[in-house]
């Protein structure tokens, strides 16, 4: 009721009452966030993205943790994309300049803005940095925007550029005065609890250009074991690697750009911790859709790609091919999809698992199920009378996520998730789901549920596999 200025957001809540939210959508992007600390101080945070060789952006999960690290007890993501911009007027200048690197390439003309200014006279002005900022600007935890405290350091005109390349707004339009206070960060007991420092997991920076895939691994470990897959095919033996293994290059074939590809790069540091990064290259003609019932489906891109690579198939009726994306995916169908995605030579796996219902497994699925069982990717279902595969039973989301996570390298980060229905996650699926959520492969539903025991549709199964393929 006391608000005199407000702006909406479509990016969702990041931190609420000191707790990091969950159920975020997957994917990295440029981000613009605003957070409030326990004492009323405000943090404006911008990070660039979607620019190869500079910054790929961050996931909403990473952004939420960052806002909490800065002491925010409440924070929202305003948006993320080409409109992510932070601009200001340097001391001694009268010209507004864009300080970050918008993925649109310039300031967007049709966007919402939070404009902050002060009418205070200048005193003890902040020095102008000697060099142009070359890092992504953030709000420093030691230089705080304080909308309530008495001013200790003010400056006219609208914004001051700190030596650490941080732009600190200094006022709001007309009614509310905001001053820059150079003070020590408040005691941790007065703000949101800062999460304990996480282990040093590797970070992979990768890009594709002119038939060359390059990747570098950022880790404190001396060496790293890097693997590369294109469309699920292991190309690691064709990589050129540095002595430490942290830098790799891979030269693609001349016709590589004619097709759409999914490139997967994994890295395991010498301390056993791992990371994974993906690149998707798209050809000009896009995806070929052969199914009559997916043209307007939300999963068209994923289904078409997986079909083009021979990973999933439909069924023909009356001269037309149907995928039936909204049908529940059976355990047999899921096993075949997993086997195809791993380019499995089923002839190498002759030992048929001793399932109690072995005679009910379709002939088109038996060899794939045997291969996935032998590889430890898929198990059966326990009952009082033995182990069953249940080939025709719909596979659950928890089962699908657990199976898919087994294709990822050991040592991946698996931060605890906080879904509204986390208590419903089977114990055997918790770590797998945490791993997929942490890497941004799954995010849950808009009501902050993961619905682990819900049956998964054929479209959802394809999308889930695509995210880690």
Oligomer: single chain
Report the count of strand segments.
Answer: 23
**Which structural class best describes the helix and strand composition?**
alpha+beta
Outline, from the CA principal axes? Answer: globular
Could you outline the blueprint of secondary structure elements for this entry?
Elements: E1 13-16, E2 19-20, E3 31-37, E4 42-47, H1 60-69, E5 72-79, E6 87-89, E7 96-98, E8 144-146, E9 159-161, E10 167-169, E11 179-181, E12 203-209, E13 212-218, E14 224-230, E15 233-234, E16 240-241, E17 247-251, E18 261-269, E19 274-281, H2 300-308, E20 315-317, E21 320-322, H3 331-341, H4 363-374, E22 381-383, E23 386-388, H5 397-405, H6 430-438, H7 458-468
Antiparallel strand pairs: 1-2, 1-5, 3-4, 3-5, 6-7, 8-11, 9-10, 12-13, 13-17, 14-15, 14-18, 16-17, 18-19, 20-21, 22-23
3D architecture notes:
With 469 residues, the chain is α+β, with helices and mostly antiparallel strands. Helix content is 15%, strand content 22%. The protein has seven helices and 23 strands. The strands form eight sheets. A five-stranded antiparallel sheet has the order 2-1-5-3-4, covered by helices on one side. The protein has a four-stranded antiparallel sheet with strand order 12-13-17-16, with no helix packed on it. Strands 15-14-18-19 form a four-stranded antiparallel sheet, with no helix packed on it. A hairpin with a 2-residue loop joins strand 20 and strand 21. The protein is globular and about 85 Å long.
List keywords for this structure.
globular, alpha+beta, five-stranded antiparallel β-sheet, 23 strands, single chain, 469 residues
């Amino acid at each position: 009721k006391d608000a005199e200025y407000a702006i909406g957001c479509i990016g969702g809540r990041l931190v609420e009452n000191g707790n990091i939210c969950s159920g975020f959508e997957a994917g990295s992007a440029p981000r613009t966030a605003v957070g409030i600390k326990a004492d009323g101080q405000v943090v404006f945070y911008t990070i660039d993205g979607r620019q190869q060789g500079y910054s790929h952006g961050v996931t909403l999960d990473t952004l939420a943790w960052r806002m909490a690290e800065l002491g925010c007890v409440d924070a929202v993501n305003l948006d993320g994309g080409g409109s992510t911009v932070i601009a200001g007027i340097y001391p001694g200048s009268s010209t507004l300049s864009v300080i970050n690197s918008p993925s649109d390439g310039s300031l967007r003309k049709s966007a919402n803005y939070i404009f902050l200014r002060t009418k205070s006279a200048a005193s003890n002005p902040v020095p102008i940095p000697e060099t142009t900022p070359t890092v992504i600007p953030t709000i420093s935890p030691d230089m705080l925007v304080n909308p309530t405290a008495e001013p200790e350091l003010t400056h006219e005109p609208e914004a001051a550029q700190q030596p650490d390349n941080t732009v600190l707004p200094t006022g709001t339009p007309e009614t509310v005065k905001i001053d820059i206070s150079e003070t020590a960060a408040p005691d941790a007991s007065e703000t949101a609890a800062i999460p304990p420092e996480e282990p040093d997991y590797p970070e992979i920076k990768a890009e594709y250009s002119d038939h060359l895939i390059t990747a570098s691994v950022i880790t404190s470990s001396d060496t790293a074991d890097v693997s590369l897959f294109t469309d699920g095919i292991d190309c690691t033996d064709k990589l050129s690697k540095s002595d430490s293994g942290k830098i790799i290059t891979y030269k693609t074939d001349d016709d590589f750009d004619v097709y759409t590809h999914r490139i997967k790069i994994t890295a395991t540091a010498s301390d056993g911790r791992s990371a994974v990064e993906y690149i998707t290259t798209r050809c000009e003609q896009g995806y070929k859709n052969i199914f009559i019932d997916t043209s307007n489906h939300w999963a068209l891109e994923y289904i078409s790609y997986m079909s083009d690579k021979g990973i999933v198939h439909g069924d023909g009726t009356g001269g037309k091919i149907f995928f039936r994306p909204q049908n529940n995916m059976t355990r047999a169908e899921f096993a075949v999809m997993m086997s195809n995605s791993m380019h499995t030579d089923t002839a190498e796996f002759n030992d048929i698992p001793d399932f109690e219902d072995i005679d009910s497994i379709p002939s088109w699925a038996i060899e794939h199920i045997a291969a996935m069982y032998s590889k430890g990717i898929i198990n059966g279902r326990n009952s009082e009378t033995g182990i069953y595969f249940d080939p025709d039973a719909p596979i659950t989301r928890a089962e699908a996520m657990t199976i898919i996570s087994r294709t990822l390298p050991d040592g991946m980060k698996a931060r605890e998730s906080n879904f509204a229905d986390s208590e419903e996650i089977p114990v055997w699926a918790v770590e797998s789901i945490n791993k997929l959520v942490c890497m941004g492969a799954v995010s849950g539903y808009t009501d902050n549920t993961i619905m682990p025991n819900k049956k998964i549709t054929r479209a959802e199964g394809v999308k889930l596999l695509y995210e880690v393929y």
